[in-house]
Known about the structure:
By secondary structure, the protein is an alpha+beta fold. The chain has helices spanning 22-33, 83-89; strands at residues 19-20, 42-49, 55-62, 69-74, 77-82, 93-97, 104-108, 114-115, 121-123.
Amino acid sequence: MSDINPATPEKQSTDEQIHLAPKAIAEIKRLISEQKDNDGMMLRIGVQGGGCSGLSYSMSFEKNTDEFDKVFDFDGLGIIVDSKALMYLGGTNIDYSDEILSGGFKFSNPNSTRSCGCGTSFSV
């Protein structure tokens, strides 16, 4: 028997992983190779308030981690996600497209209940 109230079903993913497609891995590695002093550089993926749907994805290059960070390894590429962001990003698939009009990183987030047309913001 479930303890979840049927009127408010649990929306959070229990998957504490993120998933990167091979094209996304290749593009992140390419971007890191263009950074100065890129030895040990990793990509931090996070969530911040804002965007037209309430939350938006953030990406930045970093070398250091904090005690609440989880580091994922994808073919030697370090991806950092802090534990709070992982609550929103668990199970997310990230791909990359080099299409002229709609290119860029694409987030497919199972926790999202709504997203904007450009795919960079979402709500849960």
